[in-house]
């Protein structure tokens, strides 16, 4: 749980979490299975994380252009 | 096991004798210890050799540019000015190390090291010759691409941490250039991997032969186009002319390494020259037949059969020939790179990006498709084998 | 190195430094992949993450100017790290206890099974991965390609320059 207020820092934390889960899946093939299923899932996790990072950062940049800040509390209201 | 320097050396009797003697002396199996020591020494040799090549690259650049511009170039230090790079190195080391007061110290110090680490890490897989590569990992080419992107991070951090407008602009342009041109380069590499069937450098080079008609360059019209795409993309990736906007000497006052002085700047410049060498080496390995010597001299079998030499000695001679072939081809490409720098004008930033995204990437994708179709339709044969086979079968029918 | 990098990401005050620690941690994870024999995965991790995502993060930090220490309207520091010493102490303690419990469970499981189920050393995993991707997991492959297409278009649309609205 990353209790920071900066949106980009939260994205960094999300990357860490995704990496950890991908590592877990990759280790699965070494110790339990013999047919590379975990590797494939790790590959897909990397792909998904990359896609999510890019879209997330796009959103952050747009948010910054609107609100001039990247503090998460400024995103608390749904109105303009 | 992946074949490495150690597996090559372990074919010789002296090596196994040494390992056995060491094991007896130390009490435990000395194989991995000897392997580690050999890797360490090998890494030092490779790094030293390539640092020298980087330095000589600066000298070569000045001489070749002088030749192109009808002047002399450095000719005072040593015979024909060949020690010029040592003089430059000494000058850089002795310069005062200035760190701007407002700069971010940690990233400022880290950025040139990131560039250097990225470049030196690629040296581990560059195929110098079949036995003397430091290691031939299964994903060789891919690993190299990954390390080249690390250089991009270094460039960006260099620009950012200098805390000056010009460096910042240069850094951002440099990083965006590097990541954009990774894409056509990687797609072209993938299209060559399609022919070879594997990502390791050994597989890629073993699919080619010694003579030009067996190279991947002439395998296929798509590979031919791919060579030029890869060459241009790799030139742009190393921030080398005509794409050297990040270090545009006349525009951005040297761009992302404006604020660096002395040895730190030397690290950036050295990283660039070595990266050009590595990229030329990769182009040679992918397209020009790597270290393969014509008439299969490189494997040493001919020496064993014809001259009756000891197998290890014959292999060593073959290795030296392969090394020579690799370096000849790479240095030829290096010459072309320097030639291009001093011949073509610099591209503007938007022209650069247009070139990448509107031209090179579609061409690379089209190449990949075409290559896949070719492999499927012609069962992986090159143009020459198709022409020869059809000619032979046509001649055989009559 | 991986864990150190991850802890440093959480703990550092400067956002730029946090990105660099993320880079270190990603390198550590790539190394761990290589240790368990997943060489293609390690190289992919390097290319995609260390090359792409980190540069993306750095660009975003640059474009949003997140490295200044600004005070928001509540008077709190904006780029604070995660809590104070007590938080770390409890988190570390919980981590150690969790890992001990997990180790107990895993050890009993491992002892019950024969240990010859590891991957054959240095098989050509790229080939096998490719075959598997194209045969067993083709649906996931296609879906992920659509996802990437969606991400590409989405990112491009979001970052388009807006037309000025005249109210």
Features:
heterotrimer, B: 398 residues, mainly alpha, 0% strand, C: 167 residues, Four Helix Bundle (Hemerythrin (Met), subunit A), 70% helix, extended
Briefly say what this structure is.
With 80 residues, chain A is mainly α. Helices cover 70% and strands 0% of the residues of chain A.
Describe this entry's structure for a reader.
The complex is a heterotrimer of chains A (80), B (398) and C (167). With 80 residues, chain A is mainly alpha-helical. In chain A, 70% of the residues lie in helices and 0% in strands. Chain A is built from two helices and no strands. Chain A has helices at 7-31, 37-67. Chain A starts with 6 loop residues before the first helix and ends in a 13-residue tail after the last helix. In chain C, α1 (2-11) runs antiparallel to α2 (15-35) and α2 (15-35) packs antiparallel against α3. With 167 residues, chain C is mainly α. Chain C has a domain at 1-66 and 77-82: Up-down Bundle (Four Helix Bundle (Hemerythrin (Met), subunit A)), CATH 1.20.120. Classes of the chains: A mainly alpha (80), B mainly alpha (398), C mainly alpha (167). At the A-C interface, α1 and α2 of A face α1, α2, α3, α5 and α6 of C.
Task: Give the topology.
The complex is a heterotrimer of chains A (80), B (398) and C (167).
Chain A: H1 7-31, H2 37-67
Helix pairs in contact in A: 1-2
Chain B: H1 5-9, H2 13-26, H3 31-68, H4 84-94, H5 105-122, H6 140-161, H7 165-196, H8 201-206, H9 221-237, H10 263-287, H11 301-307, H12 311-341, H13 349-378, H14 383-397
Helix pairs in contact in B: 3-4, 3-10, 5-6, 5-10, 6-7, 7-9, 7-13, 9-10, 9-13, 10-12, 11-12
Chain C: H1 2-11, H2 15-35, H3 39-64, H4 85-112, H5 125-135, H6 138-158
Helix pairs in contact in C: 1-2, 2-3
């Amino acid at each position: 749980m990353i209790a920071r207020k900066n949106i980009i820092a939260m994205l960094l934390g999300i990357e860490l979490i995704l990496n950890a889960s991908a590592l877990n899946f990759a280790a699965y093939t070494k110790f339990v299975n013999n047919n590379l299923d975990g590797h494939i899932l790790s590959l897909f996790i990397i792909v998904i994380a990359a896609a999510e990072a890019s879209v997330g950062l796009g959103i952050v940049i747009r948010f910054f252009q609107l609100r001039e800040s990247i503090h998460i509390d400024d995103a608390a209201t749904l109105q303009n | 096991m992946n074949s490495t320097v150690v597996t090559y050396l372990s074919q010789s009797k002296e090596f196994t004798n040494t390992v056995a003697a060491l094991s007896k002396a130390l009490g435990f199996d000395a194989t991995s210890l000897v392997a580690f020591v050999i890797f360490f020494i090998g890494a030092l040799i490779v790094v030293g050799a390539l640092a020298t090549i980087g330095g000589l690259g600066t000298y070569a650049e000045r001489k070749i540019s002088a030749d192109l511009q009808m002047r002399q170039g450095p000719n005072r230090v040593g015979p024909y000015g060949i020690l010029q790079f040592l003089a430059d190195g000494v000058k850089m080391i002795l310069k005062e190390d200035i760190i701007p007061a407002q700069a971010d110290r940690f990233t400022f110090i880290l950025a040139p090291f990131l560039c250097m680490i990225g470049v030196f890490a690629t040296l581990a897989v560059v195929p110098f010759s079949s036995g003397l590569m430091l290691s031939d990992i299964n994903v060789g080419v891919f690993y190299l691409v990954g390390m080249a992107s690390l250089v991009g991070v270094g460039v960006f951090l260099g620009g950012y941490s200098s805390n000056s407008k010009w460096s910042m602009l240069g850094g951002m342009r440099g990083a965006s250039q590097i990541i954009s041109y990774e894409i056509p380069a990687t797609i072209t590499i993938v299209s060559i991997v399609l022919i070879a069937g594997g990502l390791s450098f050994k597989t890629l080079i073993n699919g080619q032969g010694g003579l030009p008609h067996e190279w991947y360059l002439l395998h296929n019209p798509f590979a031919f186009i791919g060579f030029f795409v890869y060459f241009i993309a790799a030139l742009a990736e190393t921030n080398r002319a005509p794409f050297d906007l990040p270090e545009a000497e006349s525009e951005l006052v040297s761009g992302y390494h404006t604020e660096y002085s002395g040895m730190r700047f030397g690290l950036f410049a050295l990283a660039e020259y070595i990266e050009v060498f590595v990229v030329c080496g990769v182009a040679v390995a992918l397209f020009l037949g790597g270290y393969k010597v014509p008439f299969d001299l490189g494997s040493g079998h001919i020496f064993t059969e014809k001259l009756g030499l000891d197998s290890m000695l014959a292999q060593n001679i073959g290795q030296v020939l392969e090394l020579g072939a690799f370096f000849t081809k790479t240095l030829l490409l290096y010459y072309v790179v320097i030639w291009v720098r001093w011949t073509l004008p610099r591209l503007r930033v938007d022209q650069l990006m247009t070139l990448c995204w509107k031209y090179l990437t579609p061409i690379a994708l089209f190449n990949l498709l075409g290559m896949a179709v070719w492999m499927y339709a012609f069962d992986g044969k090159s143009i020459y084998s198709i022409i020869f086979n059809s000619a032979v079968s046509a001649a055989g029918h009559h | 190195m991986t864990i150190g990098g991850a802890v440093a990401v959480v703990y550092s005050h400067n956002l730029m430094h946090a990105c660099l620690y993320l880079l270190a941690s990603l390198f550590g994870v790539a190394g761990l992949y290589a240790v368990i024999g997943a060489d293609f995965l390690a190289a992919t991790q390097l290319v995609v993450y260390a090359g792409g995502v980190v540069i993306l993060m750095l660009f975003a930090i640059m474009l949003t100017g997140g490295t200044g220490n600004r005070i928001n309207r509540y008077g709190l520091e904006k780029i604070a790290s995660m809590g104070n010493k007590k938080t770390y102490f409890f988190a570390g303690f919980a981590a150690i206890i969790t890992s001990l419990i997990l180790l107990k469970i895993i050890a009993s499981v491992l002892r019950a099974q024969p240990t010859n189920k590891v991957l054959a050393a240095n098989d050509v995993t790229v080939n096998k991965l490719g075959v598997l991707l194209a045969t067993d997991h083709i649906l996931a492959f296609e879906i992920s390609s659509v996802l990437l297409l969606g991400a590409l278009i989405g990112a491009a649309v979001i970052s388009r320059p807006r037309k000025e609205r005249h109210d």
